[in-house]
Protein 1
Amino acid sequence: MAKLLPSFFLLTLFAAFSLSSAEIRTSSVRSDWRPIIPFDEFGFTHKGRLELNVFKISFSQQPGPDPDLSRVGFFLCTRDSWIHVVQELEDREIGCALKSDLVKRVYTFDQLKDSDNFSTVFHESDADQYTLLFANCLQPLRVSMDVKSVMYNLEGNDRRDYLSAGKTILPRIYFVFSLAYIVLVALWISVLYKKRLTVFRIHFFMLAVLVLKTLNLLCEAEDKSYIKRTGSAHGWDVLFYIFSFLKGVTLFTLIVLIGTGWSFLKPFLADKEKKVLMIVIPLQVVANIAQVVIDETGPFGHDWVTWKQVFLLVDVVCCCAVLFPIVWSIKNLREAARTDGKAAVNLMKLTLFRQYYIVVICYIYFTRVVVYALETITSYRYLWTSVVAAELATLAFYVFTGYKFKPEAHNPYFVLDDEEEEAAAEQLKLEDEFEL
């Protein structure tokens, strides 16, 4: 039972997250003692294939003079089936996951004979989401090997599709969204040109964020397109990581700058606001490094769970950090309004920043919680819907930010007449009476 818990925890966590891509994956295992090692996950259609090539197989710490190597090998298992397999192991109905009727054995090491490598092609006709796993039921046997796994579905004239069944249309989705952002970039440039007399520095920064998001989507579309056709990204993943990093850093920086009122209400940043930027940017660097490690190593690595947790923690910290400047701005202007009658104007101006604060919270909650929940509960065939939901939310957030903070000579949020100022003062008085 104690031996089952680490593997059960690992697979439970692994099942909660989908890998970013289903490309041809090469993995190296060195003196690994784990009873269960997950390698890859893929959504098969009725014409699915798994090509498994394993080289340089060696053992250390043999459990006995004549070990039963049929208890060591690779198998495929669905998420639902694995829950029942674990139950069988706990109830001692079976002594090894490879002996369960609920798994599909791909290759067991008793077939090795005197060889230290093997190659096999497994045909999968039952459409479902499968995880490729390695079982080692001969403790304390340690295994070393180089594993190359290739998963794909056959389409049309037996053309290979290396993307999972639920992600095969992702190249088109990313390309369509990149076109939408190209339109936004052109529209924003037009606005900046027409309103060039009222343009602030923040507006050019917003243009840079849009451009980086566009390039990020284009690279991701090409990345997924090459993986779909060839099983490899051919270098497009490097560009994707670069633009993803720049997009993430600039987006969080933009939220901080807008939240502090920089370039709108004041031309400078306070020390504590600078500290927020100094925290957010390095954390984004860590988050992007963690993301690269997760994508490149896959779940078979010893530190995969740790890196996954680091990425989630850093992402949450970044999301919380960008909210502080907005809260500080609201608090400072509210306090100033109580001591300075003219400051009632600033309180009225802050209406926009209150709205923005709510929108930022909704955006973070939706993209971090709702999208994750959607990906978890959605059938493997419709995993692309979580991507569409996240990109639609991001697009709506960008449009809202641009519309509310566009350059305008008589923006009602920044210019108030006497009647509006009196209304603001009256509103402040009512709020004070309500608090008392």
Protein 2
Amino acid sequence: MAPPCFSLLLVFLLTLSLSSHCYSASSKKADEPKDLVRSSCVHASYPDICLKTLSSYVGPAKTPRDLAQAAVKVSISRTKKVSGFLATLRSGSKREKSALKDCVDQIADSVDELSMTLTELKELRGAAFRWHMSNAETWVSAALTNEDTCLDGFRDIDGKVRSDVKHKVTNVARVTSNALYLISRLDQPRGKPIGNP
């Protein structure tokens, strides 16, 4: 028969081993969403922005589709903020006022298009998968085009308003571009990066 202290030591070691295994398994499970974000963002148009915005995203993103939806939600949120910001700007020249008004309209359209993108992503299943994928890609591409068109309106205008608009809209366009990449990736076999052989 083993001495009592040996039995106690054996129980302690077994408990330690078991708790270590449980911690390792739960830690691995907790890291899964981060790994999904990392592996999904690595080939995005703006990988650092993708990683930063989606790593801090609070929603549950367990699948590539969840992640694409999260990216669109982030884009909607940022586009709404830019829309609010643009509404506060005061412009000087007639040309600048016209460019700003057009930009406000285009960014408002982007919010609507991104909202429609999110609706389509929620329907991605079964026989209608391709149809909803095509619609989602079309809407998010339209949002991105509106953001680019807004910037084009300020191309030949100088000053603080142009600088502020360019900074804010460029940032939101990059987030939207990443969302488009993550949506397009849903149609790739096993999440194969777009453009790679």
Protein 3
Amino acid sequence: MKVQQQFNALKVFLFSVDSENCIRCLEDEWPNEKKDRCIQKFVEFLSYTDNISTVFVFISVLLCLVTLFIMGIFICYLDTAIVKANNQSLSFVLLVCILLSFVCVFLFLGQPLDITCILRVTTFGTIFSTAVSSLLAKTIMVYIAFTATKPGSYWRKWIGVTLPNSAAMLLSSVQGIICLVWLSVSHPFQEMDTHSYQDKIVIQCNEGSVMGFYSVLGYMGFLSAVSFILAFMVRTLPDSFNEAKNITFSMLVFCSVWIAIIPAYLSAKGKYMVAVEVFAILVSSTGLLSCIFFPKCFIILFRPNLNTQIGLLSKKNRL
């Protein structure tokens, strides 16, 4: 019994050389190689000086400029057919959400604080939920526009911007309510992990309420799945301004990125876990931007003859 107690003590205390007394290191310290004194642990987080952070900042700024450029194109060609198609107000909401998603990358860089921990997941969840809600509302409008062309259709009175805008606002507000409940119950906070590594302290964000964290992600995943399924169902409808094919592909990219990231996120630790999150945000947002808006910008800039109702009709007929 005495030998066992001494062995347990050795795991907790440090012994000075040739000394019968032991010194216990503080939580932010660890023993040197000779085990004769305590030295300060190295503090780790995804700082702006890291090479990977420099890459993230460059890509984020570049994509912000690309998004602003596309937004400028849409403003300049506001009255053209391709911009008006499928609710231009939702298109601008989607562009703003994509722009904010690139900007929110900066919340994940630098030393985590209580305020940045709160803003990280809540901002990210709200922005992406609003973006996916806009795509879902666009898809609903495609379905209604086609169904309303049938004689005596009940959906004829719902044609317009009111229904899709209201649907997008309602679906986005649900995520906002989830975030408010999460913050009121147990909000995220800064945490210092002194146990995962012997020689360093990892400064990270603790989600607080695990239920709140997974509720935010779960609702976002639910919206993505519904948007993908509905867009896939209406992708072949013979509508001249049907965006469903582009929405289907964008949701496929979006869902594939986040599903593929889950194993990497669960296996990563420390700053690499944050880097995985930032990578997923950049790739998924880029997928939405490229799948939805690049084809439109190509028609606006390089095929202006198709940027009319007649041009789009003839293009659709050729396809």
